[in-house]
Amino acid sequence: MNNPWYKSILTGAAVVALSSAAVSAQTTLRIQTHSGQSSPYGVAIQQFVDNVATMSGGDLTIEAFYGSSVVPSAETFDAAKNGILDCDMTNGSYQTGKNAAFQFVADTMGGYDTPLQFQAWVQAGGGSDAINELYASHNLTFIGAHVGGQESLNSTRPIAGVADLEGFKFRSPPGMESDIFAALGASPIVMDFTEVITALESGIIDGADASTLGTNLNIGVYDVAKHTTFPGFHSMSSDHLACRTNVWEGLTDQQRRIIEVAHTQVAMDVMIATLVLNGEALAQMPDKGVTTYNWSNEDRAAFRAAAQGVWAEWATKTPEAGAMVASHEAFLKRIGLAE
Q: Which CATH superfamily is domain 27-150+231-339 in?
């Protein structure tokens, strides 16, 4: 038919149909992180949100909730699993009560020297597959990990090596870390993070496992504790991105690839930010009267050996924990960090 008016109607109808299809294809994922929006992790996640929207042309958007504003941090995993949220961007250690294997998703305690080594285990050492075997039973799919770097142990007395851990009273989170340090003669005391400064000032503790050098400086640890390890050796906690499996599988191949690529950038961004902030903090240590200790290879190896002894105990807790420990041990040998 050559009627221009009719053609105009057909063209308009086609535009409306295409617009409706575009609207129906638009997807929003609700994701919670325990990080504050202005923290290095929070800033990287904000960029992640922007990258996903830009790369998808607006067809895929992220509604991010910072600082555990929807549910408490430890409940984020279940909130994603049960449909309150779509994805969890917190930390696997919160789920250790479900299965000891979650400890080795979050922090091996003494296993790796750098965040890049841990990322290599996830992306090239079988870590992603091992984690997904664990998460699958909880209706979640593991997308990736992001970790800033080693934390610095702080003390009101010298802490130059393993020998200085004898009788060392320090704030420790519950779980495997306490077991490792106790095996080396320390006296870990479990307390809330918010109590660290007061406990240091009053002498209840000699030191604390708090955070990275940069964060410790910002929260005032070095106003009291004048000894610290750097680079750190003991803890490097990794956060994750995990989405409810039916939500993840309901995305298009393009949308899944966009999220994977954008999250890989998050991992790079938090490593870079932590490196820079730690470097800037290190430059301020002399003016703060703080002595830094870079543990020798021998002391690091002694700590790693003690850690692996405790790993062996934790590996017996569940079959999944045993599989996770075996995966880490094989990769540590592969990259020359263990024999």
A: Bacterial extracellular solute-binding protein, family 7 (3.40.190.170)
